[in-house]
Amino acid sequence: MQTSLKRMNPATLPNTGSMGYSQIVVVNPGTLAFVSGQVAQTADGSAVPDGLAAQTSQVVANLAEALRAVGASPQDIVQMRIYVTHLDDDAIAIAMPPIMGFLDGAKPSLTGIGVAALAGPDLKIEIEMIVQVPD
Predict the structure, then answer these.
(1) Which of 28, 37, 45, 110 has CB atoms 3.0–4.6 Å from 126's, for a disulfide?
(2) Could you tell me the CATH number of the domain that includes residue 61?
(3) pLDDT (tens digit, 9 = 90+) per residue, 52-91?
């Protein structure tokens, strides 16, 4: 059974649909998966790639694996939080295209947060998700 999420951009709030996310997501009762922040680490322990673009690609791959593990798709993502060191227009221009590609038209609630540092000195981006697991 497919989950039922209601995505909203009320006229009284900025319309963020064209930017790839929703202001509000209403979730019907069901099982939720809380996916820990994914960083540019691989299951085999390979070195963290250099640069925000390469790290974002690895983070997106990890997010896809997390969804696969719970039997979900991007359409089931309720909320994403994206943490980026040195968050500015350039970082947004680098990170958002692969993230939007991963979302494939899904428009979860989304928050971008600039941070001074992440859990490792070479890490530049971390993304966590809340996912409604399909029945």
Answers:
(1) 37
(2) 3.30.1330.40
(3) 999 999 999 999 999 999 999 999 999 999 999 999 999 9
CB 7 within 8 A of CB 107: yes
Secondary structure of residue 16 in the 3-state scheme: coil
**Residues 6 or more apart from 28 whose CB is under 8 A from it?**
3, 4, 5, 132
Structure tokens at 58: 């690895």
User: Nearest 5°: phi and psi at 90?
Assistant: -65, -45
Residue with tokens 């899904």: 106
Q: What is the pLDDT of residues 96-119, one digit of tens each?
A: 999 999 999 999 999 999 999 999
What residue numbers bound the domain in which 99 lies? Answer: 5-132
How many domains does the structure of the chain reveal?
1
45: left (phi over 0), alpha (psi -120 to 50) or beta: left
Neighbours of 93 (CB within 10 A): 10
This prediction has a pTM of 0.88
**What ranges make up the beta strands (E) of 51-117?**
77-85, 109-115
